Amino acid sequence: MSSSSLENRILFSVLDSPQLDLSVVVPIYNEAESIETLVQAIADAVAPTNLNYEIICVDDGSKDGSTQILTNLANSRVDLKAVILRRNYGQTPAMAAGFESAAGKVIVTLDGDLQNDPADIPMLLAKLDEGYDLVSGWRQKRQDAALTRLLPSKIANAIIARVTGVKLHDYGCSLKAYRAELIADMNLYGELHRFLPALAYIEGARITEVPVRHHARRFGQSKYGLGRTIRVVMDLLTVYFMKKFLTRPMHVFGLGGVISLATGIAMGTYLTVVKLFFNQNIGDRPLLILAVLLIITGVNLFCFGLVTELLMRTYHESQRRPIYRIRDIFGKQ
Ligand code: UDP
Ligand code: MG
């Protein structure tokens, strides 16, 4: 084969951007000691499946040398891509950045601290093959502090399951497998990564869970404390609203507005009749204040419904805007 036709073929295959079978996405924030072991463990776990895979490590503004370790590793391994974010954005944006770079038909996520066991990946994939769109890990024997982590998490899981309607035991487990199309449909903000199953459910996904192993943190320390619980509750409210009313805010605000306005007008009419035809004084009646209040509230709610209706349209129809800025991409392109 002449060198130019070889070049053409290579060029062609690059343009064709062959889809991979699997992308493993790992957010990394100050996990220097774990990175090499983790990447090798993922490769060892996935290799026997003969899948065409890539590992994408997203460095979320680490300050402990993780960036350098990742960059070097990505330059020496063909299966690793390192995405380096400009600063620390948080786990959700880090994962979103990884999703954006992923070329796999299936995407698996796990933590960068070796708490999830890469050896569980094939089991998740097998479950996905049974026809699910999302398989979530369930850390049955979770190795974290009982009072500050396990108890809040138990309560949070129960509430989330109730509110979102997705019956999982462990939303916080990062080890999950997704079909890539599903990820493409979901926008991530705040700390919404733990609500991915709920968001996926909104998108109509088939979801299940499998028990997975969980290890105590070997190096470094957890990036979260109790404060996370509050942020999770706020995110839960957002998800609840999105699930219930995202495409029809007018039904909520507009209905309230109409009821309030109609009641106010009825009271106002009554007062007008009393004043005009029966010549009573209405200036000191509490009903007058209530009528005015209801009318103003009603008009406000109604307008608010209209505005949110427009906002939702913009939300759905505008182009997607990333919630992160990538500084560099090294390694496997
Ligand atoms: N992480 C991140 N950015 C952050 C915080 C955490 O990318 O701002 C990563 C972290 O490196 C780890 C994963 O998110 O891979 C989960 O974090 P951690 O292990 O601290 O959470 P825990 O397991 O204690 O819930
Ligand atoms: Mg952890």
Low-confidence stretches: 1-6, 8-16
Strand content: 15-25%
Bound molecules: uridine-5'-diphosphate, magnesium ion
Helix content: 40-55%
The gross shape turns out to be: elongated
Task: Write out the CATH superfamily name of the largest domain.
Answer: Spore Coat Polysaccharide Biosynthesis Protein SpsA, Chain A
Mean pLDDT: 87
Quickly give the CATH architecture of the largest domain.
Alpha-Beta Complex
What name does the CATH topology of the largest domain carry?
Answer: Spore Coat Polysaccharide Biosynthesis Protein SpsA, Chain A
Q: Quick one: how many beta strands?
A: 8
Please give the domain count: 2
Total of helices: 11
Summarize the structure.
The protein is of the alpha/beta class.
Describe this structure in words.
There is one protein chain. With 333 residues, the protein is α/β, with parallel strands linked by helices. It has 2 domains: 13-245, Spore Coat Polysaccharide Biosynthesis Protein SpsA, Chain A; 250-318. It has 11 helices and 8 strands. The chain has helices spanning 3-15, 35-46, 66-76, 91-101, 121-129, 146-164, 180-184, 196-202, 227-245, 249-278, 286-317, and strands at 20-28, 53-59, 80-85, 104-109, 134-139, 176-179, 207-212, 326-331. An 8-stranded mixed beta sheet has the order 7-5-6-4-1-2-3-8, with helices on both faces. Strand 1 (20-28), helix 2 and strand 2 (53-59) form a beta-alpha-beta unit. Helix 6 runs parallel beside helix 9 and helix 10 runs antiparallel to helix 11. Mean pLDDT is 87; it is low at 1-6 and 8-16. The structure holds uridine-5'-diphosphate (UDP) and magnesium ion (MG). The site of uridine-5'-diphosphate has 16 residues, from strand 1 and helix 4.
